Structures are given as structure tokens and as C-alpha cells.
């Protein structure tokens, strides 16, 4: 089976290409940017480029996108061109080429305003049943692309699975207060409780989705580290997250204290990956309990794949101390 990976110069695209190569699987990487993992450079909105790239392809993993960090630097039309028109071109050419499975990398950002409860409300419990309320052009165009995927499944029978991934990038948060208050590793370890995944697990979810797509037909799945929280924890999480952690993980404060780390005072949402685990057979290896085990053993908690891919940034220029400008 030959797999076409779009966005092969990006974080997830490179991680997929590394993993497919390591498994001796046939893969073609395409991207606007040349890279050691890109076979063909071009624009996914260019129909001729997409058609040529689709020759001999049996499955597509579509990771190429304009991201949230581009919202302040790129016009809305660029998001429409890449995230909507590019996805449409890939879907149409996949149907024409008789592709057996199509996996679309979406984002938990499509939930938008649904992720932010009122100050006196419990934290939000985010499953696939929560209605998206996009807050910017990024979330809006990713949601529109999801709907195109569903349309092409219904109209043409193309097996398509949509993976709404949470954070897996290694770059620092765009929130200056959070960057100042928390060491990068500390913040990202905290996020594995409720809104982050290791890129190794994200790759495995995509590869499982390729295998399961023909049987499932269409589906949307949240891809995030398995949370230790339950719905009954939500009220206290939004008031006093450390109190919940002390009950669930009595050792966490000592392990954190030895490194000068702290837990966030409040957690406002919890991503639930139960559907991906049950329907894809996905078994993410990276989660908060694993982090604590690594801290106790003085080992790195991030996967070798995450370290190998590293931080790429999203722009050709730098913005002082900001990882990217905020709209």
C-alpha cells in the first residue's frame, strides 16, 4: 500500500514519514517546502500537482494546513485556499484515483468557544458530541474541510476518518504569562492531563485510522492523551486543579517540587479520547501517569520521535520572544 502524506515538511508530516520509512512502508511526501521527507514540492490547491501526486496511491493522510500561528500573519483567503480548496482538490483526486482510505488531520480548535466555560461553571467535558463553535478563520476552515470530507464519503463512498488532534507541537505557548510562569516541560507535562498528546501517539492514531477507514466509512475522533479525570472532577478542576491531582496522584507534588514545577491552578476543559481508543483500537502510551514515572526514574517523558522531529516553528521570520504573533 502506497500512502500519500501531505505536509511532509511539518511536525506531523515528518513524524509520519519517519515512522513509515522505519516500517519499510511505501510513502510519498508532498509539501510546499522542500525537506528530507518531501518527494514532491507543490501546492495542494494546484489540481494538476495533486492529480500527479495521487498516481499509484492507495491511501492519503492529509496533514497539510495553515495553522493557528498563521492567523495573525496570513489573510483569511489563504486559509480558504489551503484548508478548504486544498482539501477539496485532494478529495476529488482521491475519488478519481480509487483511493481506499483518506485520513484528515483536523484540530480540537474547531470546538472554539465551547472550550471556555463561565468562571463559575465546571470545566468543559469535550467529546465528539460537543457542537463546534469556531473562534477564528483557522477553526472555521478546518471545520469546513471536515464537512467536505463527510460529503465526499456520503456522495462517493470514499472512506474518510477525521482526527481532531490536540496539541502535540513542542513550541512554547503563545500566552506570555504562562511562558513566564512555567518551564516549557512543566507546562507540557501539565497539558498531558487534558489537552496534549505526544506526536508518537498521534502518528499511531493516523496509521490505525488508515487501516480502519474502509470498515468504519466515516467518523470523527478526538486524539489526545488519555485523561485521568472523570465528569465528577469537572467542578473542582475549574476551581482548584491541584486538589484533584493530590487525590489522583499523591506522589505528584513531591516529584514536581523536586524540579521546581507546579500544576496549573485551574483546568478549563478535558478532551476525551474514548471513541478513538474503542473504535480505532488506539492505545496511547503517553499520559500523566507515565510522566510521573519518568520523573521518578529521571528519564525523558517525551518520545524519541518527538525529540527527533523537534521544534520547527511556523514562519520564516522570528518575532522576538514570541513563538508566533497573536491575532
Automatic annotation (TrEMBL):
<dbReference type="InterPro" id="IPR050177">
    <property type="entry name" value="Lipid_A_modif_metabolic_enz"/>
</dbReference>
<feature type="domain" description="NAD-dependent epimerase/dehydratase">
    <location>
        <begin position="3"/>
        <end position="212"/>
    </location>
</feature>
<dbReference type="InterPro" id="IPR001509">
    <property type="entry name" value="Epimerase_deHydtase"/>
</dbReference>
<dbReference type="InterPro" id="IPR036291">
    <property type="entry name" value="NAD(P)-bd_dom_sf"/>
</dbReference>
<dbReference type="Pfam" id="PF01370">
    <property type="entry name" value="Epimerase"/>
</dbReference>
<protein>
    <submittedName>
        <fullName>UDP-glucose 4-epimerase</fullName>
    </submittedName>
</protein>
Amino acid at each position: 500500500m502506497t500512502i500519500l502524506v501531505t505536509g511532509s515538511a511539518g511536525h506531523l508530516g515528518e513524524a509520519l514519514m519517519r515512522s513509515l520509512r522505519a516500517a519499510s512502508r511505501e510513502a510519498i511526501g508532498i509539501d510546499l517546502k522542500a525537506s528530507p521527507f518531501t518527494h514532491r514540492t507543490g501546492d495542494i490547491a494546484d489540481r494538476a500537482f495533486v492529480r500527479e501526486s495521487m498516481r499509484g496511491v492507495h491511501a492519503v493522510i492529509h496533514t497539510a494546513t495553515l495553522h493557528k500561528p498563521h492567523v495573525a500573519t496570513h489573510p483569511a483567503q489563504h486559509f480558504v485556499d489551503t484548508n478548504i480548496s486544498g482539501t477539496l482538490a485532494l478529495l476529488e483526486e482521491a475519488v478519481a484515483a480509487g483511493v481506499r482510505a483518506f485520513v484528515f488531520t483536523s484540530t480540537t480548535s474547531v470546538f472554539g468557544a465551547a472550550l471556555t466555560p463561565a468562571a463559575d461553571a465546571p470545566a468543559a467535558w469535550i467529546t465528539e458530541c460537543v457542537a463546534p463553535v469556531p473562534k477564528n478563520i483557522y477553526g472555521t476552515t478546518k471545520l469546513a474541510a471536515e464537512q467536505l470530507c463527510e460529503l465526499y464519503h456520503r456522495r462517493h463512498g470514499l472512506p474518510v476518518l477525521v482526527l481532531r488532534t490536540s496539541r502535540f507541537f513542542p513550541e512554547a505557548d503563545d500566552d506570555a504569562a504562562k511562558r513566564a510562569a512555567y518551564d516549557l516541560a512543566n507546562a507540557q507535562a501539565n497539558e498531558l492531563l487534558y489537552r496534549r498528546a505526544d506526536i508518537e501517539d498521534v502518528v499511531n492514531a493516523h496509521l490505525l485510522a488508515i487501516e480502519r477507514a474502509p470498515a468504519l466509512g466515516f467518523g470523527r475522533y478526538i486524539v489526545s492523551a488519555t485523561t485521568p479525570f472523570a465528569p465528577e472532577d469537572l467542578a473542582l478542576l475549574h476551581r482548584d486543579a491541584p486538589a484533584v491531582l493530590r487525590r489522583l496522584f499523591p506522589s505528584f507534588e513531591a516529584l514536581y517540587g523536586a524540579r521546581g514545577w507546579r500544576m496549573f491552578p485551574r483546568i478549563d476543559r478535558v478532551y476525551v479520547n474514548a471513541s478513538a481508543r474503542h473504535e480505532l483500537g488506539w492505545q496511547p502510551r503517553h499520559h500523566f501517569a507515565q510522566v510521573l514515572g519518568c520523573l521518578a526514574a529521571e528519564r525523558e517523558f517525551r518520545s524519541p520521535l518527538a525529540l527527533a522531529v523537534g521544534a520547527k516553528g511556523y514562519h520564516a521570520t522570528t518575532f522576538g520572544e514570541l513563538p508566533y504573533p497573536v491575532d
